[in-house]
Amino acid sequence: MPYRNLLLASLVWLAATVAAEVPEYELTVVAEFTTATTLRAASNAGHMVGDQVVDGQSRAFLATMAEGLQLLPLPAGFNASAALDVNSQGVVVGTVSDQGLVFDLGEPAVWVPDAAGDYQALVPQQFATLPSPLGTLAVTGGQIVAINESGLLLGWSRLQGFQGGPTTLFSLTDAPLNLGELGFAATVTDINNNNVIVGGQLRMDLDTTTVLDLGVPDPLQPGNVSFSNAIAFAINDNEEAVVAANLASVPTENWLTYLHNDVAGYQRLNSQQLPALNVGFYDNNNLGDVAASGGILFAAEQVLVQDFDALLEPEFANWDTRLGFIADDRRVYTTAEDFDVLDRNALVVLTPLSDVIHASGFETL
After folding, report:
1. Residue 260 CB contacts under 8 Å (≥ 6 apart), including other chains
2. DSSP code of 16?
3. What is the largest CA-CA distance in the chain?
4. Among 53-62, 114-123, 184-193, 287-296, which is the least confidently predicted range?
5. What angle do CA 52, 83, 275 make, to 5 degrees?
6. Residue 175: is it exposed, middle or buried by C-beta count within 10 angstroms (0-12/13-18/19+)?
7. What is the pLDDT of residue 20?
8. How confident is the model at residue 249 (pLDDT cuts 50, 70, 90)?
9. Nearest-angstrom CA–CA distance, 90 and 338
C-alpha cells in the first residue's frame, strides 16, 4: 500500500477509534407518574419542570432528586397551569389560566422560591393593547417560555382573536417590553446566558438590540428542493443554535434538524435523517452536545448516536428513554418507561460515568 494511502487509513482508523468513545450512562428515577406528564425543560442544577393532568386540568410541576415531584401553586382564582422553563436558582416560568385550556387562554406566570423552599406564583404586568396589522387589538394573555441565569423573562403576548402575538420581555417589577417593535418579528423559543434570544429565523442580542436573520440552509443537493423557512429552538452560550428547517414545495411539511453558528453557518445534524411531518425535540449545551430529532451529537468526540438507550449500562436495559435536556455536565433529564413493569413511567436523570463504551455502529462525523 502506498505510504499516503497507509497514512490516510491510519488516520481514519485512529479518528474512528478515539471519536467512538462516548459516555456510558446510569439511570436514576427522580419521580414516577401515573397520569399524562410532559417534561418541558430542565436546569443545569437539576430542576425539571413541565405539566401533568390532575383532575382533568393541566398543572405545572417542579421535580428534583432531593424533593421528587411537587405541583406548583396556582395564583388565587386560577385553575390550570404549565411550567415551560427553569433556571438554576429554581425560578420557574410558564403560564396559568382561570378558564382551563392553559395553552389557549393562559396568562404569563412566574414561580419564585422562598427561603423555606416553598413557591409563590406571580402574574407579571401585561399589555392592555398592542398594535397589529389589523390595528390596535386587546391583549388576552400569553406565556413566558424562557428564563436565563440572570432571570430575564421572555415570552409572548396573545392578541385578541389570535393564538399568538409579539415576543415580550416581561418583568416582575417593570412594564413589559414589546420586542417586535425593536425588530424581533418572531416568537421567542430560547434565551442563553449572554442575553441572546432565538425564534423563527431570527437571533437577537438584547443588550445591543441587534437582530440577525439566520436565513435557511442551502438545498440538500444542487438544483434540489429548497427550504422555505427555519425555526431556531435552542441556543447555547457560544451562540450555536439548533434549528428545524422546512423543505418547500412538498405536499406536507418536512422538517430536518440543522445546527447553526456564525463560523460554519448551517450544518445538518444527521445526513441520514428522514424528513418529519412535524417539528421534533431540540436541545444543546455549552459543550456543543446536541440532543435532538435526528440524533444525539457528542461534540468533542464527534459521535452521533441514535438514542440514549444505546448508552445505558446493561443493568438499565429494561428502560426505554426519550430524548431529553442535556446539561453542561452531560447529565440528561428526560422521561422513560420500564418495560419490565406494567405502566411504570418516570422522570429520570441519566448520569454519565467515567467509563466509556466503544460505539460500534454509531456514526462518526
Report:
1. 214, 232, 240, 241, 243, 266, 267
2. H
3. 79
4. 114-123
5. 80
6. exposed
7. 58
8. confident
9. 28
Q: For residue 69, give the nearest of 348, 361, 356 by alpha carbon.
A: 348
CA 50 – CA 58 distance, rounded (Å): 10
Q: Identify the DSSP state of 314.
A: G
pLDDT for res 70: 97
Q: What is the mean pLDDT of residues 229-233?
A: 97
Residue 338 near residue 348, CB atoms below 8 Å: no
Q: Is the pLDDT of residue 250 over 70?
A: yes
- Could you give the 3-state DSSP secondary structure of residue 8? helix
Residue 124's closest CA among 138, 139, 107? 107
Task: Write down the residue that cell numbers 423557512 correspond to.
Answer: 229
Give the three cell numbers for residue 275. 424528513
Nearest one of 79, 46, 70 to 119, comparing CA atoms? 70
Residue 315: helix, strand or coil by DSSP?
Answer: helix
Q: The sheet that has 227-235: what strands, in order across it?
A: 227-235, 241-247, 254-261, 265-268
Tens digits of residue pLDDT in 89-125: 999 999 999 999 999 999 999 999 998 889 999 999 9
Other CB atoms within 10 Å distance of the CB of residue 268: 15
- Kindly tell me if the per-residue pLDDT of 18 is higher than 50: no
pTM greater than the 0.85 cutoff? yes
With b meaning 16 or more CB within 10 Å and e meaning fewer, what string describes 206-240?
beeeebeebebbeeeeeeeeebeebbbbbbbebbb
Per-residue 3-state assignment (H helix, E strand, C coil) for 257-290: EEEEECCCEEEECCCCCCCECCCCCEEECCCCCE
What is residue 308's three-state secondary structure?
helix
The residue whose grid cell reads 448551517 is 266
Grid cell locating 352: 454519565
CB 100 within 8 A of CB 148: no
